[in-house]
Amino acid sequence: MFIYLSKKIAISNNIRIQCLAWNSTQGWIAVGGDDGLLKVLKLDSGNAKGVAHPAILSMNQTLEGHTGKVQVITWNEQNEKLTTSDQNGLIIVWTMHKGSWYEEMINNRNKSVVKGMAWDSVGQKICIVYEDGAVIVGSVDGNRIFGMELKGHTLTGVQWSPDGKCLAFSLRNGEVHIYDSQGNFSMQVNIQCFPSLVMSGVPVIGMSWYDGRNGYIEQDCPCFAICYQTGQVQIMRHQNDEMPVVFDTRMNAVNCSWNHNGSILAVIGTAILPDENKECNVVQFYTLFGEHIRMLKIPGRVITSCVWEGSSLRIAFAVDSFIYFAIIRPDYKWGYFSSTLVYSHQNQSGTQITFWDTNNNEVHNKTVSTLYGVAACKEYCVLATKSDDSSGQYALLVCNSIATPVDRKYMNIEPLWVALNSSHVFAASRDHFLIWYFMTPKSQTTLGIAGTKHRKERLYHIDDTPSGVAEVIQDLDKSYQPTTNMQATGDPICCIAASDKILVLGRESGALQRYSLPQVALVQRYALSSRPQSLAINCNSTRISVIDSTGVLTIVECEGNLDCGGKLERRDVWTMLWASDNPNLLAIMEKTRMYVIRGIDPEEPIMCSGYIATFQDLEIRAILLDEIIANPDVLSAEEHILDLEVKSLRDTRELLEKVGLKEATSFIEENPHPRLWRLLAEAAIKKLDLKTAEAAFVRCSDYPGIQLVKRLSNVTNDQIKKAQVAAYFGEFNEAEKLYIDIDRRDLAITLRERLGDWFRVIQLLKMGTGGTDSQLQAAWNSIGDYFSDRSNWSAAKEYYERAHNIEQLIKCYQLLEDYDSLEKIVATLPDKHSLLKDIGEIFVSVGMCSQAVSTYIKSGLVETAVQSCVQLNQWDQAVALAETYSMLPQIAFMLDKYANTLITKNRHLEVIQLYRKANRQLDAAKIMYQLAEKEIAKKSKPIRIKKLYVLSALLVEEHLNQKSSSSSDKSGYLIEDYDELKGIDLKMVDNAWRGAEAYHFLMLAQRQLYDGHADLATMTSIHLKSYEGLIDPEEIYCLIALASCNAKAFGTASKAFMKLESLPTFSETKKEQYADLAMQIFTRHPPKDPKGMFLSCSTCSSTLPAWNGICPGCEVRYPVCIVSGRPLLNLTSAWTCKTCKHSANHIGVRQICPLCHSKS
């Protein structure tokens, strides 16, 4: 940070100023002083860029109303109100109306003097404190919220907490008390900047509690400053902070004030300086952690107040009857590389780092909790941050121009200063410095595995004297680990700079230490008269420029001692940069002037306030960081970047424009530089002075320029020469005009073809004869390629159609999903065209099977057509193709292979659908039958098992119907010729409905039993004895026993129990349990069936049991009704399902078969 006085405003009649207040949003400055002095001023720089241009008073209004000394002034920025108070206790609230300030409210307590006024952070409440202890809190509209009397206390100031929940009152005895927003006492602040015995009686002269409106430097950082008259300062994170930052300014303090983001505290007062014999007015600047930044001496006798501008680029001081303005040049954390500006600014979430590509206006952001520094070199920059985890480590991030980290390093030393060259990152704390070889994608490609040996970082203590031997030993012996001194030094590091050849460190004593690179060895020490603030090294590492803490610039020659006489010494310098292509050119900023130092001689200054980013080819690029940081979301290269020329470059341009080539050549020979020779060559070539141009191009090593001169020397027509020169300088329209004027349209077309301006090529071709069809077609194709590269497929399609480029049209139609046009292309292409295969692949990729098949067949790829059907699971089309082209065995093999793959993945239903599409219903029925058996093993619900058996039976029926309806159908050849019954259970084919019948009757019997029809349930359950292979016998006979017992058919029940007791799968214990249950039942009920459970045979009139479907007399088998479970004695009156061929009484059937669920 650098500060210097820039402006002074005098108050008329020598009236002494007592207080100042600067509105940070609108820029108004309120001035209060003796004899009722109250003014509102405003400084305006107009549309000028930066703070370099002088500010003028755009407002100077005197406010009449006070008669006594105006002592307290405060702004309500949210509501644009000004509140003032004088020594008589009169309080006036001012508001603006039509560009002028008027009284809005007046209050006069007439008892005591107002010592402090403060608005809360949202501008809704004001707290006014009087010297006698009275406190008033009011609203913005003038209403009193509450008041209180702090009896026995003399108040000196007040501050609101950032959240508006607390009030801090300072007392004359040095105490600070905290009250809540309702006026209740909370606590007394623990003051630690004094020993308790010494503190008594030292008044608080200033409190400043930063409200966080512009973000914080880091989370939970100190923001509540308390300043005492004797110079002691305490900065707290909050009112309960037990570990505040304390320091002694060693001066008689008058006031203190935070800057706009709470990062710098300004303390004003008087002190006796080392080179002075009397007290002087001074302002000292400290970080929020108490580190001293800079001191500025202020002229005058009595200093009373200091206030910051809204952006903290200016600060104002009230001294006697004058207002002094000082300009501040902050030490921004920024860098510039590869046309990319990287800078940091504070927001509510932390420190945001922005990467701004100034060429393309692209922005990339990163957010870190704490940023220590930024350094940039060539294609990369390094960010020194603190790790976000709880490890407490620090991190170095090497990033490219789009904010992507390419390498990172974690370390334990605090990186207060960082530097970067083309291969190494240098980080320094107060006691140590670290050298780290970073890897980039380019270096990894170049070095490969061999580059990993450079990956070890090296840590040095500032007091050590490395000679480079340790690195050599470490490269030879990997186990060797040099020790590092970890003690604190008495002369800390304060700045750092590095090039590819040397590393320079500055120390607070004024010493400079130069090290060689890449083998780190201490080469030389230098002694300066004061502490260095910043360092810079020229492009060939022969000179070091130093700016010390007082803003004095000196040059150190690397191969000699510092010349005490000083060949170059400049004052008030705050930034500098050496030219990257000339070791004798140095650009510096002195206040608001930019100087270019050539050797030791300065050129004429340029008014500028930018930060120097690059210095190359006699051009300086300066960045207006002040404007960028003030509004970081609005970036404009025109508004925020200044490109300035060195005087020699400006003089050369003027000589070439106003004098001539000969004089300019003489001047450039006296001041040689490649940029000047190039400028001369360009001017000479425009005038067709080929001899001078060639000599100048040689001097600046411009090979394309030399080639241009050779081409021009072979051209006889001056107009063609001028056209080629115009094209060389990018004036293509002028070159084309020259070609057309001499009727060389062919040369104009060639020029546009080289430029790729195919739209203009077509225009030129249509202007007259001379163009060929091939040229026009090439132009259409190139325009189509132009739109294709930009994914504008509809426009590309139009131009490819004009060029008849079928290959690119196919691509466009695919991306536009215009498959109808693709089909039209297929129709126009001849058979076996090479592009047909590509179109077929497109159709397959989108599932258009029939179109793919027709395309492949037209191209003669029958096997590919069949494979596409298989791939799309269109087996019916595959079979049809196989039948047509005699490929059925191959298809069957592919089908089985694919089916086995699906089965291994447990995708049985897909296999069933696959077999159905291939007309292999028996194989599908087999899979369904197997699924039913698995469900039986898992003891699934009967309804699920029945459905699976029904589906299996339906597949068998479908197979049988197809064979019977069309025995000559050759699609059956696929199965007949492939062992159709191989692996098929014949029982499944012969009696396909058996499984469905079993579980149908099982569920029917259970339903009848639950509905109370025990006799029907008995009949139905007895039929289940025929399905013991499908249903567990225990389940069958338990159901028979249960149903028959409920139907009083104990004879049937007795037989069921006998069967249960004889089942071989039962254990003896289980058999005994069934025997005991049978004993309990049949000791009470004799094992006899009732008489009503017998029927009469319709054939022989014999008696047969109701549950028996076979007559014992004539052995006629009666079918079972699928609705009631009873035998059907009269089939003529029965209903029969057309699908499953099962019968039932008409009374119990509606529209759907209860067995197969098909419509009747």
From TrEMBL:
Residues 1-329 form the IFT121/TULP4 N-terminal domain. WD repeats lie at residues 63-104. Coiled coil: none annotated. Its main location: cytoplasm. Residues 676-764 form the IFT80/172/WDR35 TPR domain. Keywords: Cell projection, Cilium, Cilium biogenesis/degradation, Cytoplasm, Cytoskeleton, Repeat, WD repeat. This is Putative wd40 repeat protein. It comes from Triatoma infestans (Assassin bug).
